[in-house]
Amino acid sequence: xxxxxxxxxxxxxxxxxxxxxxxxxxxxxxxxxxxxxxxxxxxxxxxxxxxxxxxxxxxxxxxxxxxxxxxxxxxxxxxxxxxxxxxxxxxxxxxxxxxxxxxxxxxxxxxxxxxxxxxxxxxxxxxxxxxxxxxxxxxxxxxxxxxxxxxxxxxxxxxxxxxxxxxxxxxxxxxxxxxxxxxxxxxxxxxxxxxxxxxxxxxxxxxxxxxxxxxxxxxxxxxxxxxxxxxxxxxxxxxxxxxxxxxxxxxx
Length: 252
Prior knowledge:
Rossmann fold; CATH 2.40.50.1020; 2 domains; 5-stranded parallel beta sheet; 8 helices
């Protein structure tokens, strides 16, 4: 298996490489790249490989910038400490999404997924990635409502009507633009995957609809403080690490 690793942290790259060699004895590391600029230059002239493992946040940008410039000729496994990039990852030839710190088990599952796809699609896993991406986009467009329980009633809540999702006392709630709140039987991670590109997970407790945001201002601690169009008693802020991703998402 011919592999490329895109990772700017030496220890993480070494750990990933040793894990892959341990789990896949025939693995050959063709290149280890450390930034967007280097990777774009490399892929313009590179021979095809089987699989790419890529961090998302690099020193000079996000790895998505690489694949927007030079579409890869192999599926990409995105490895990151953040889960808010998942939807975007699967729009950029993403075969899998592995959260750091990764384990032998998580990497093994990724390799098994890769082997199954190669077998199912006659050794062209990238075709399968395109298929998964397209079907995911169709599902995102066709998912229109969320069913919630309210007392003894079953209520369909339109996805577009959801202003935010939040955690309170280990329970997950949705709040509509009209201020109605419903307890839901889903985790915030499940909601993050369900809601689609108009929503952004700004922190561990909140997912916001772009249409619910009135404005943001910079606080004293260099965090962005979000002001909503709907009444919400909890102060919502974004750390500086998520600042650029949030601004890009806010621009649509």
